[in-house]
Amino acid sequence: MAGSSGIRCLLMRGGTSKGAYFLASDLPADPGERDDLLLRIMGTPDPRQIDGLGGAHPLTSKVAVVSPSADDAADVDYLFLQLGVDEAFVTDRQNCGNILAGVGPFAVERGLVRAGDERTDVRIRMVNSDSIATASFATPGGIVDYDGDLPIDGVPGTAGAIPLDFEGTAGSSTGALFPTGNTRDRIAGVEVTCVDNGMPSVLIRAADLGVVGDEAPAALEADAELAARLAEIRLAAAEAMGMGDVSGATVPKLVLLSPPTSGGVVSTRSFLPVRAHTSIGVLGALTVGAGALAPGSVADGVAVLPEPGTPFRIEHPTGYFDVDVALTETDHGWDVARSSALRTARKIFDGTVFPRPRR
Hints:
Blueprint: E1 7-14, E2 17-23, H1 31-42, E3 62-68, E4 76-83, E5 90-91, H2 97-100, H3 103-109, E6 119-126, E7 131-138, E8 162-167, E9 185-187, E10 190-195, E11 201-205, H4 217-221, H5 224-240, E12 253-258, E13 266-271, H6 282-293, E14 312-316, E15 319-330, E16 333-343, E17 345-353
Parallel strand pairs: 2-3, 4-6, 11-12, 13-14
Antiparallel strand pairs: 1-2, 1-17, 3-4, 4-5, 6-7, 7-8, 8-16, 9-10, 10-11, 12-13, 14-15, 15-16
């Protein structure tokens, strides 16, 4: 528990994010005490997070809390917490598929899961949405091997591949893959597709908001008029999705779609919800894929859909992200038949972190 001796912590890059990984038993059981401690560990609130582990961006102000699973269908439970940077908040209203990539290796590092001689599969219950993902990674001699030759755009160098196979992501936060009941709606004066394949998202054609869709994230963030318009759409779309007032939440995400420029399916610009993502999240990419595949979505006329069984390549500001997504039509609408992605992770340090004192 917290004390003058500090708290055991493993800092890890997961996919295109970076976060602090903790055993639940090393943190206070009370959520309020836990969140206060994590804010002081991360150095929030401060735009530079100079007095903590945070990297001055939402993508590097993340926490994974891991414990043995209470569900017989899983090996470990993973609670994802998004921390603010210059605002003092901690929220569990979303998952993070990038940080998820490090949960299996962390579980082996901490002895929660026994490693195989060559590879290890870890079934992970994502507590935020009560859905399951299986992570597979190399463990030669029973030790996690983070090295490998897989590059992912947005991360320098290469690392070992970690396939992630998801179950039950459709409607994981809202109850339905298309929570409004439609694949296209008109909200706040613009056509959108509201979709939830693990990350509640609002898909919008970039051209409908007066942008090309190939702008750099910094340029989009600097557009005050665009920011105001996106905020208006997000609040209205969340109500339509049954999410209520999300003014203090990080979901739903907003994703601008434009035609691909580098041989992919569609080009994207994602918002978190205000900061522009330098790439795209795992569950965000899977959600865009599901939304784009649905007939009648706002991706019609924008996306160049792949042949069945081929990778769904989503372009983003620093490259592309391949996912594998397939939909099936049921008596109740559309459902997800397959949802998987390939990520990497790397252990950065394992030690003791000392939180900023209470003021």
